Amino acid sequence: MSKPIVHMDNIEKHFGNIIALAGVSFDVLPGECHCLLGDNGAGKSTFIKTMSGVHKPTKGEIFLNGKPMAFSSPRDAMEAGIATVFQDLAMIPLMSVTRNFFMGREPTKGKWLFKRMDIDKANAATMEAMREMGIKLRSPDQAVGTLSGGERQTVAIARAVYFGAKVLILDEPTSALGVRQTSNVLATIDRVRKQGVGIVFITHNVRHALAVGDRFTVLNRGKTLGTARRGEITGNELQDLMAGGQEMAALEGSLGGTV
Amino acid sequence: MADVSEAVQDERLKQEGFATRLMKRPELGALAGVVAVTIFFLFTASDTMFTLSGVMNFMTPAAQLGILAIGAAMLMIGGEFDLSIGSMVAFSGLIFGAFVVTFGMPLVIAIPATFAIAAALGAVNGTIVLKTGLPSFIVTLAFLFILRGASLVGLKIATGGSTQLRGVRDAVENDFLTPVFSGDAFTGLFAWLAEQGLIDRFSSGMPKVPGIPVEILWFVAFALIATYVLLRTPQGNWIFASGGDETAASNSGVPVRKVKISLFVLTACCATLVAIITVIDAGSTDARRGFMKEFEAIIAAVIGGCLLTGGYGSAIGAFFGAIIFGMVTIGLTYTTIDQDWFQVFLGAMLLAAVLFNNFIRKRVTGER
Q: Which among A5, A162, B298, B348 is least buried, having the fewest CB atoms inside 10 angstroms?
C-alpha cells in the first residue's frame, strides 16, 4: 500500500472557549477519493481550513509525505500541492474562462517592458484542460458567468490539477447542483483520481459519497467516528453515524425510512 | 459510473454571430455614442465643427478630460473610485506652479518632484481605503475637500494672498522640456501640408491649425498603453480580478492591495499630468482648476462601459467617452442650441450609459 500524501494527526482546533475540533485524524493516499462526511456543524469546514492553511491547528500535527509541516497561509499549502476548491470557487463571473483559469498565475512571454501575457498559450491550455475534463467550451473568452454550476466546479478542479495539485480538497462540490451536473462533477472526480491525485471530498450527501468514495470518514461534534473502506459500510450506516445514531433512528421511524 | 468523456456541443447553444460578439465588448456603447453625437452635430452644427481646426477644438478639452477618465476607468475596473481627481489637479497645479515660479526650479526637476508628491498622496488615499476597509467613495470624498482647501490655502501662502499664481509661462518659456507638455506637435508637417494646399491655410500661407496640441498625443498614447496593459499583461488581469471579486482574486494569489494602491497612484499621476499641461498652457494656476473634473471623468468612464461595481470596463471606452464629452461641450457652441443644455445632456447620457451597461453585463454573464 502506498504512503499517505497528507496525514493529519490528532488535530484540535479551539476558537476561544469553543472546541471546534477535538482530535481528528485523517489521511489521503495518492489516487484515492477519501470522503469526509458530517452534518452541519460537525467541524468539516474548520477541518479543511486547517488542512488548507487558513487556520493553524491548536494541537496536533500535519505531515506531508511523512514530514511535519506548518502552513502559515493558504499560499504555503498551495505551493506544497494542497489545493482547495471552496464553495465560492474563487471565480469571477465577469471574466473569461481563460482569465479565471490563470488568475494570479498568468503565463508570460517577452522580456522587461515587453513582458506580456501569453494569451494564445493560456487559451490553448485552458481549452485542453477543459477538454480533458469533458467540457467543450464555445471559446476560451467565454465569461465564467455563462457556465453552469457544474461546469464552474469543473473549471476550478481543472485549474487546481493544471497547477500541480497532489491533494485536492473539494468543499461540498455537489451541494448546489442538479442531478446531471452532479454526475458530471463526480465523473470529474473519478478522472482526477485516476491521474494519481488524492481527493478529499467533503459532503453530507451519502449517495454522492458512495458513488465515488474509496474510504469514508465520518465527523461528528468535532470528532471522527471512524474510517471505513468501500464495501465495509452501507449508506444507512453512514447516515446513522453522521446524524449521531439514536436521534436518526427515531426520526426514520416517523418518516418511514425515506431520509 | 457513466463516462462522459465524449464532450458534445450543446445543441441549445446558438452559434454566435459577429454582432453578438461585438455586443460583448464594453466599449461598444461609447463607440455608438460617438457615432450618434457625430450624426447629431452633422445635422445641427455649422460646417466648421468638422473641419480640421474644429476637430482640434473639441479634441483638446476631450484630451484633458480623457487622461483623467482613463485613469478613473482603470481604477473603477479595479473596483474603487477616486473622487479627489479634480482637487488633485488643483493641488498638483499649485505644487508645480510653486516649484517653477516661487522656487525657480527647471522643469526637469519640478515635474518629477510634482509627480512624486502626487503619487505619495495617491498612495495615502489607497492605503487608507485598504487599511480601513471603508468605501473609497467616502475616503476620496474627504480628499476632495482636503486637497481643494489645501490648494486655496497654499496658493495664498505662495502668492501672499492671491488665489491665482501667475508667471508660469515666463518661468518655463525657454525650458527644453516645455514642448513636451505644451504647444503643438508636428508643426513642420502641418506647415508643409498647408504649403501643398492639403489643409486650410490663412491668406498669409500659414496653416490654420499649426499642429496637433500635445495633450491629444498624450491622450492617444495613454489610451493605447492602458488598453495594452489591461488586455495583454498579467497586471491587467489582476486589475480585472481585483475589481471583480477581491476575495477570489487574493485567494488565487493576486496581490490585490498592491494592484489597488498602484491604481490610486495612477489616478493621482493622471491628475498631475493634466495639471502640468493646463498650467503651462494657461501660464497660471488657480484654486478652481479641475473643478468637477472627478465627476466628468467618472461619467466618461461609465459611458465608456465601466461598471460601477468594478471588474468590467475598458480604457478605449473611456477614450470615446471623453471624446463624446468634448464634442458636446464644444459642439453646442457651433449650433443655435442654448449651451446650458449641456448638463441636461450629460445627465441623460449618464443614465442611458448605465442602463446600457447593465444590459450588457447581463448578456455577458448570461444572467436572466
A: B348
